[in-house]
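Minutes, methods subgroup
Present: GH (chair), OT, SY

1. OT presented the first of two proteins processed in the latest run. Sequence and structure tokens recorded below as shown on screen.
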Amino acid sequence: MIVVLDYGMSNLSSIANALEYVDAEVVITKEAAQLSKADKIILPGVGAFRDGMSNLQKQGLDKVLYEEVVRNKKPLLGICLGMQLLCDKSYEFGEWKGLGLIRGEVKKFDIDDKLKVPHIGWNNVNFVHEHPVLQGIDNDSNFYFVHSYYVECKDNSDSIGVCDYGGPFTAIIARHNIFATQFHPEKSQKNGLKLLKNFVNWQP
């Protein structure tokens, strides 16, 4: 069973529909107790880092995520804001503490004025390292992005996929049982669906 976490920061129906398309059993929930029943967890997200962390903390989901992902080693997929929340901190409209599951910081794009921020649209991702969740997807494939901030990993080995938008930035993170994407696989057509199917089948 794949649990998609509802903490008020994402369009959950598109993620659920994509997962069901690849034959996953999906439950969307706000309940911390449901995470203990999950085989895998998806932390989606669109919006501000501060609001995302605040919502997780108000619902007690930050502590439950730590328990299930770090102690119980359940596979976790973070998507967009969900990837950023995994990091130590963000500098989005201030300085905010994250979940601390990945050593890294979230920073705003500081790029040429010719490129618009937020970064919206299709871009190629270069796979720096092989990973089971990327199996069967061609390197330099296109994925769909919507974001103004990016993750800077403290440990470069955690960054396994890189996109270039006014300079390289981390598009995919992987560490042990955690996998996360800055892009939206549920909006990335066949490549995104393949990635989701691989995650459903992944046994780290």
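2. SY then presented the second protein from the same run.
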Amino acid sequence: MAITIYDIAKEAGVSTATVSRVLTNANNVSDSKRRIVEDIIQKYNYKPNVMARRLNDKKTMTIGVLTADIRNPFYASLFIECERRANEKGYSLLLFNSLNINSLEFGHLEKLNEQHVDAVILIGGKVDELLSDMKFASKVNDVMVKTPVVITGKLDGTDCYQVNIDQQQAIDLVLNHLLENGHKRIALLGGNSSVQSTVEKRLRFKQTILRYELEYIDSFVSNESGYQMTDGYEEMNRLFEGGDLPSAVIAINDFAAVGIVKSITEHKMSIPKDVSLVSFDNTFISDMGLVGITSIDYDYPEFGKVLIDSAIRLIENKDVPRKQHILPKLLIRESCSKVLG
């Protein structure tokens, strides 16, 4: 029976993408892995399909982008910057949107593969999951045999290239700002425990509260919520119903922040006089209300540039760091004030 690239990867204990990079003489493979793979190739006298290799050498000058939900201004802002950078570099983007239904990503990924895009970028959705879907990881590994994949989260079981936000620094910036303004009773509302970035924020939040010897109040941190306006609204209403209010609220994103603002307003209270509010993402939503919301910005132009440049360098078989981080910054507006007294 003819040996395949999958057989070589299994025997070598590496991914099919690593075998593919050895076959194409790419630089981004360690010497030890390269020797193991080359020995197995020689052992079986493996010859890759010449026609497939020739087809793979033809560039379409197109990069596929699979995003969780383009209606979310975070994803929209990042995609725009990716498109701007891709156009500067002579590439076009092919967008697939999963409408926040992660199961759709299997079909979208297959369609991108059929389009013979030169690289794939995965933004949100499956790569945001705390527990990686091994079936999806296997699908991505199949794509990576011929096509490099860059992601904005993590995907265990693959060796995708990652460009991620420094979530710990993001929550640190928010908490430092609130603590410097005298806030000791702080809530963190919105988000879901199945999402890696939310779990990281919640863990860091609890660590910081306890490190400063402040009271950690379970009801001040959402358990199972979400990222929509209704989620922020319902979570803030929950605090009002409980009768124990924080002096400051951290919204998991700008969508949730809008819902929190609505709840506070309906309860005849104001921001920041009665409750201070900070958020993540710094999308256009954060600065369109009567009170501008202090929010964490992710430098979308730089974020998009790093994603596209990484994809293009991989297309050109050039070295790319396995993991890169985008450094957040805090944009201060009117929604947060000092605690008086």
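Chair's summary of item 2: The longest strand covers residues 62-67.
Next meeting: continue with the remaining queue.
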